[in-house]
Write a structure and sequence with these properties.
Elements (H helix, E strand, L loop, with lengths): L17 H9 L1 H10 L1 H21 L1
């Protein structure tokens, strides 16, 4: 949206990688073991984080 208006946008914060975002939510240990212990939950969480990241970049 902003690009179409010729505006420059600088973003920070939510731009972490998907794994980094996951470990911020779940903690490092849980982020590493969740895919093995809770694969469906882990898949849904990573999917939601990816969707959030996509929407974030669309706004920028």
């Amino acid at each position: 949206r902003f690009r179409e208006q010729g505006k420059l946008v600088m973003v920070k914060g939510l731009c972490a990688g998907i794994f980094e975002m996951q470990q911020r939510f779940r903690g490092m240990t849980n982020a590493l073991v969740d895919p093995f212990i809770y694969p469906e939950f882990s898949d849904r969480l990573i999917g939601k984080l990816a969707d959030l990241k996509i929407e974030f970049w669309k706004m920028a």
